[in-house]
Amino acid sequence: MIEVRTSKIDDGEFNRGVFATEPIAKGTMFHAAPVIPYPNEQHEHIEKTLLADYMFSYGENHTALLLGYGMLFNHSYKPNAYYELNFDNHTVEFYAYGDIAADDEIYINYGGEVDSEDAIWFEDKNASE
Questions:
Q1: Where would I find the SET domain in this sequence (predicted)?
Q2: What class does CATH assign to 2-108?
Q3: Close Cβ partners of 12 (under 8 Å, ≥ 6 residues apart)
Q4: Half-sphere exposure of 15 (CA within 13 A, CB side)
């Protein structure tokens, strides 16, 4: 249902994003990324690496490394997907916010909520979307 391809967003490093390989209907969960959580106080070690930009808040006291496609979704303030934390399954679940067409890149809002306008920690190269 999804795959990694070259993104039109040029971040200067990887240019990767997640794309729909078939139409995805609004509300459909299309990916459950397993997580490796760790206590927030350990994050100071991760902050010294490139991985810091890819971590997700995971509850009040933890941060998480997402596996699968979880770390490869690009940001947009007008996302076509959202995510929910599933603590029982230790996953982050990704859902279609609206209908997503085949070949569309899938975006989430790094602010956590679909309608968040909070500033993110890097230059938003997708701001004109």
A1: 1-111
A2: mainly beta
A3: none
A4: 5
Does position 10 have pLDDT exceeding 90, yes or no? no
With a CB cutoff of 8 Å and minimum separation 6, the contacts of 88 are none
Could you tell me the two tokens for 66?
């997402």
- 72-125 pLDDT per residue, tens: 999 898 999 999 999 999 999 999 999 999 999 999 998 777 876 656 544 544
Which residue is it, tokens 């990324």?
33
How far is the C-alpha of 80 from the C-alpha of 89, rounded, in Å?
24
Q: Write the CB contacts of 95 (distance below 8 Å, at least 6 apart in sequence).
A: 27, 28, 29, 30, 81, 82, 83, 84
Percent of the chain at pLDDT exceeding 70 = 85
What predicted TM-score, i.e. pTM, was given to this entire model?
A: 0.85
Q: What is the dihedral of CA 119, 58, 10, 23, to 10 degrees?
A: -110
Amino acid at 5: R
Instruction: List Cα–Cα distances, 67 to 29, 54, 125, 127, in angstroms.
Output: 16, 11, 24, 26
